Amino acid sequence: MADESDRVAIVTGASSGLGRDTAVRLAADGFGVALVARGAEMLAEVADQIRGMGAEALAVPTDLADGAATHDAVKVVTEAWGRVDAVVNAAATDAPGPVTATGDEAWNRVLAVNLTAPFVLARAAFPLMRAQGGGTIVNVSSVAGRRGWANAAAYCSTKFALTGLTQALAAEGRPHHIRACVLYPGAMATSWGVWTPDERQSQDRSTPPPEDALPAADVAELIAWLVNSPKHLVLNEVTITPLHEQGWP
After folding, report:
1. Is the alpha carbon torsion for 93, 66, 112, 83 positive or negative?
2. What domains can you pick out in the chain, each with its CATH number?
3. What's residue 199's pLDDT?
4. Nearest to 49 by CA among 72, 24, 79
5. Residue 56: predicted pLDDT
């Protein structure tokens, strides 16, 4: 891939939910999509789906709690395709429970996946984007990044912090035509709360009404718009919720 018409996107959490729908949606727009998540088998399924659409896909199984592995994932993408035009950080995890029951290991894993991984990916992608003349980073936060919830201290803390990271990236990237946006989704019909690939494959597939939980494809549509929007346009922050959202405002 040598010219700008052959755009490349890295999407984390791409094995399921919003990450998967975002990867498929960007592939429909002609992006080569690097799929980053832990579950190799599920990533392979998404890659096959994208290739079946006539687009390019690269599965990069990665534990985003491992900073070195996360950095290496970008190296795999650049060695394969030579560029990175968009990074969508859709992966997230949680350690639900009261503060007094949240151990250091659980806290640190949430911090690593939800905040450190987006930082590492941005740090690795920035030089490429500068050399290319621009790029777009979309960090998926949550309405829990705008209002703290009980029994979600680790999750809320990282999602609030993701706003600061995104604003810093936007300020540093602006002179180089690098855009950064933070997205605050409300309730979505995804496998949220199911943390392992095996559990996701065996979970209940019933779908709530869209008024109560947005289809992930709807949010993926917005992310695709952000990535594809005119380069002079920056949507710094977006809150998107179903009509009957309970978490915000």
Report:
1. negative
2. 8-240 (3.40.50.720)
3. 57
4. 24
5. 98
Structure token digits, residue 67: 């900073």
Rounded to whole angstroms, how far apart are CA atoms 111 and 109?
A: 5
Instruction: Give the Cα-Cα-Cα angle 181, 87, 29 (nearest 5 degrees).
Output: 100
Identify the bridge partners of residue 9 per DSSP, sorted by sequence position. 33, 86
Write out the two tokens for 211: 């008024």
- Looking at residue 247, what is its pLDDT? 86
Q: How far apart are CA 137 and CA 153, in angstroms?
A: 25
- pTM of the complete model: 0.93
As given in the structure block, the two tokens for residue 58 are 């690269």
Catalytic: 184?
Answer: no
Number of CB atoms found within 10 A of residue 51's CB: 12
Structure tokens at 17: 């939910």
Overall residue count recorded for the chain in this entry: 249
Using CA atoms, how far apart are residues 63 and 184, in angstroms rounded to an integer?
23
User: Which of these is catalytic: 31, 81, 119, 155?
Assistant: 155
Inter-axis angle of helices 153-173 and 104-111, nearest 10: 30
> In what helix (H) or strand (E) does residue 89 lie, and over which residues does it extend?
strand 86-89
pLDDT along the chain (249 residues), means of 10: 73 98 98 97 98 98 98 98 98 97 98 98 98 98 96 97 98 98 96 58 73 97 98 96 89
Q: How far apart are CA 10 and CA 28, in angstroms?
A: 14
Using DSSP, state whether 59 is helix, strand or coil. strand
